Structure formats: structure tokens, C-alpha cells
Amino acid sequence: MYQNLEECIQDLEKSGQLIRIKEEVDPHLEMAAIHMKVFEAKGPALLFENVKGSSYPAVSNLFGTVERSKYIFRKTWDKTQEIIGLRNDPMSALKSPFKHVGSGVAATKALPMKKSSLPSTFKEIQISDLPLIHHWPDDGGAFVTLPQVYSEDPEKPGIMNANLGMYRIQLSGNEYELNKEIGLHYQIHRGIGVHQAKTTKLGKPLKVSIFIGGHPSHTLSAVMPLPEGLSEMTFAGMLAGRRFRYSYEDGYCISHDADFVITGEIHPGETKPEGPFGDHLGYYSLTHEFPLMRVHKVYAKENSVWPFTVVGRPPQEDTAFGDLIHELTGDAVKQEIPGVKEVLAVDAAGVHPLLFAIGSERYTPYQKVKQPAELLTIANRILGTGQLSLAKFLFIAAEEDKPLSTHDEVEFLSYILERIDLHRDIHFQTNTTMDTLDYSGTGLNTGSKVVFAACGDKKRDLCTAVPEALRRLNGCEDARFVMPGVVALKASKFKTYEDAQKEMDALSTSISKSGELTNCPLLIVCDDSEFMSASLSNFLWATFTRSNPSHDMYGVNSYYQHKHWGCDNVIIDARIKPHHAPPLIADQTVAKKIDRLFENGASLSKMK
């Protein structure tokens, strides 16, 4: 079992899963470009030994594949998974107590260990000494992309009630005074927000510690959706097979295992502009006011290594992160939400915009005609649970006569489109919360949600090519087949919502006049139907990141009845809107500059 990040790096190198990059590399765009090229090729972890402007090496792509991640945690994976299972199903431990003795021992060893003072291997440095990595051309500065942000509840101080989360940290740029101020961006529904609200009410600053590095389990713990009562630090210890070691300095918690620690305070009402930043939806999250953190001290451990990743349109390294988390905690949602079999945040759609779910339909088994009932209860529970509540589109189905999986996107969507009653089974939530990073809504954190629910017998056969009626429409052209039951239509550039309403009304009328189109329940209006139809990934990404259900969903022969909306065919306007954030586009000049590292004799020549 590793004592630290350095031992993990050495182990990966010995097993052929890490390459050292000996050439000097610029942290401004070059390191990120190299990482993305190697990740895309399903390549190894990377150790940048010579980072321009910093004496510290940096490592990336540690979690680039699920296989590598499970290799890192190979000695503790099964026990950790079992302990999480016990938290979800404690009765199993009572039924077979001796079977779980090992799990109890592992859990006890995972309790955090408080030390009396800071290790002698720690020294004070400054923010400017760190690898200041600038990932995308229009990023506002250098960011920490794998931080473990630690804060304590002022009403229940102490490590067992603390929160450890992964919130992005801006180290330079904008109006931040280098070495004295940094930006802390956290989205809604985050634990640190509760802590800050409490300290603000008390008129006190919130003390924050930012850990970077340490055992890889500590990084993973910062993003884990853990069962209630299981602290991130305990989970980190379990997965590391080594207790989380810490002490307090000047009132700040210091992880003895971290490679770097930044401490500071967030004072009530103090904010500064943070961003832009390339995010996991595949766009820039724009500049907004977020909490300002006044830097207290910065520490670096002897032989420390700076871990980083690149955030952008999926798939990226955090895709493997997500798969790993799902495997560890996949059954937890079944315990939290009765009736659920599966919930999947669709990675290709940027995770939060789109959820697939499978649930039970047991309310009225005596009725011959089946319609969603329990599914709607489950849908409301899903949209009211933790990070799942950030979703915009939820497609939920009842598994009936054959096994169904959310992981086969085409099969799952086809199953719903074959069965959904478009007059009855579409349910909106308007003027509600939305992901902070999603700019398709009506403002920061605000937008809408929609549930597509389906059960019962198959109602329609889905088209397997573009129906002839869609090849001769007014206002739309270049109809392209996307998947069974889904066709993309190219339209003129979006102007205003008033114009869009008129355009969609005209399109609906044109389709209605052409006759029934029952085999094509979902139409996507877009700027580029060739791009939309080129791959399933393009369809999922562009459709669900560029639409707000309440504003961008229309229907053929749509109507309202007692506040409920229905239609014959759903139309989603997935054109780019003026208020949307710009997509991430790599700098091609930089892409050419990094070719030197892939040439014969260079560090990455084997990746050529």
C-alpha cells in the first residue's frame, strides 16, 4: 500500500503505466494539450519532470482508465466496496457477522489520525512557486483542477463533521493579487456552501484548507457521493489502506499526506470575478463573482508532485473517475431511493444535463392499461437528491418483459420513445435550479427540468431513416437520421425566443400538414445537422447542453390541458443561443508545438 503519491508514481512506472517527460514543458496550454492527446490515445499516466517556471514536477492522467485506477487501489478496493455496501445494507452484517469481520477491521483502521504538529518535511512556499497550469486559451488564469477543499461546520467543529469537496481554485489572473488571494468557485448544493452560510451568519470568516496530492484515494474522496454519516476522510483512509493523518496549524487543518496545502479565509461578503474556465460540459463557464479566499500560508512537502487533469468536453479523465465512482457506489442509490434499479448521469451529455433511470411500476398491477405512476414518484425523488437534482432532462422507464440497461444509450432511448405517450407522459418543472456551469437556462443556477416517463406496451415502431415527410419542410433543411425515432433538422441561426416561437410554430404546422409522423417522436432543430448526426456522442452533447426544457421544447400539435402540456411529436431547439457560453476550442499552434515530444528520441515517441 502506498504511503504517498510518490510511491504510486514509482509503482505505475515499474508496471509500464507511466511515462516521464524529461523535456521542459510550458504550463501555459502545452501541458494540457499533451495530456489530452495522450488521454485520447488511452495512454499512460504522465510525469512532467521539467515544468517551466516551477521547481515542482507535475503528474496527470493517473485516473485515465478505470483499469489503471483499479490497479492503484487493487489492495483495498474490495474491502472498501464491501464497507460502503454495509452502510447501505447494515442488516447483511447482522445476518453474517463473521463474514464481515475483515470489513470492520478495515473501517476501524480508516479513522483519521490526529498528530501534534506539522511534519518536518513540510516547508512554506508561495503560490507563485507552484506549476501555474493554464488549460484552455480563454481561461482566466491558472487553476487547480484536482483540489481537495476542506472546511468545518462551525456548529460541529472537528474532522468527522467536516466537508471535503472538489471545487475549482483560481490561482492567478483576473483581479487576484498573486500570492495573497485566490478564487474559490463552488456550485450550488455543495457542503462548503452550508459552512460558509453558517460562518457568515455568525459574522466570522470561514477557514479553508486546500489539499493537493497525497494518496490518490484522497483525490477520489473529494468527489465521492458517500452515504450519510461516512466522512470523506474516513473513506480516504479506507481506500488508501492507511489512516488520514492531520494536525492543526493556526486553526487550519493540515493533511500530512498531501503534497501541497493552501490555507486561508473566506470573509463574509467578499467576492471577486472568477473565470472563465473550460468545464466538463465542453464550454467555458464565464466570469462571475465567487468567494475570495485570502491566502494564509502555503506548504509543500519534500519530493512533492503536483497532480492535475484537464476539464473539457467528455470523454476526459473525469469520465473514468465517474465510472469508478459508479462501480463503488452504484447500489447506494437503490437504498436511498426505493424502487430505483439504475440511475446514470450520461457522460457524453456533460453529466448533469441528462439522466437515464430505470424504476419499478408497482402501484396498480391490477390495471390492464399501464401508465407511469410509481415512476413519477421515483422521478421526483431523483430530482430532489444531491447532485442528481442538477439534471435538466430525466428519461425514466419501467423494466418489464426484458432486461434493460441505462448504459446502452440507443437501446434505452429507443425503449422509451417506443412506449411514451407524448400527450400524457412529459412533465415539466419550471423556474427551478440548474447546474452552475450550464448556461442554457435563464440565468446563473436557474432554469427548468423535464421528465420523460414510459412504461407498458410498445406504442410505435421507430423510423430507421429520415421519413419522406421531413425532407420537404418550410424553414428547415438537410434532415439527417440520428438514431431510431430521432431526426436532426438544420435551421437558420437563432435570433430571439420570439422569432424561435414563430419558426417552431411554422415547422409544426408544416409537419402536421404532411400527415401523421408517429414513427419519429423526437426532432432536433440545430445549426448543423451533419454534426448532430455524425455520432451518438455529438447528438447527446449538443442536444442536451444547448437546450432549456421550458424555453426550447416545442411540439407538433402541442396543447395545454389543465396546465399539462402534450403534443404529437417533440421538437427540441438545440441551436446555439446568444446567452450560451462559447465551446472549448484547442489552440492549433500549441498542438503543433507539442509534436516535438512525440518525435523519435523524445519522451513520448512510443505514443506516436
UniProtKB/TrEMBL annotation:
Gene Ontology cellular component terms for the protein in this record: cytoplasm
Domain called 3-octaprenyl-4-hydroxybenzoate carboxy-lyase-like N-terminal: residue spans: 9-83
Record SUPFAM superfamilies: FMN-binding split barrel, UbiD C-terminal domain-like
The protein's name in its UniProt record: UbiD family decarboxylase
Domain 3-octaprenyl-4-hydroxybenzoate carboxy-lyase-like C-terminal: from-to ranges: 321-454
Pfam families: UbiD, UbiD_C, UbiD_N
EC class: lyase
MF-aspect GO terms: carboxy-lyase activity
Organism: Alkalihalophilus sp. As8PL
EC nos: 4.1.1.-
Keywords assigned: Lyase
Domain 3-octaprenyl-4-hydroxybenzoate carboxy-lyase-like Rift-related: 121-314
Gene3D superfamilies linked: UbiD C-terminal domain-like
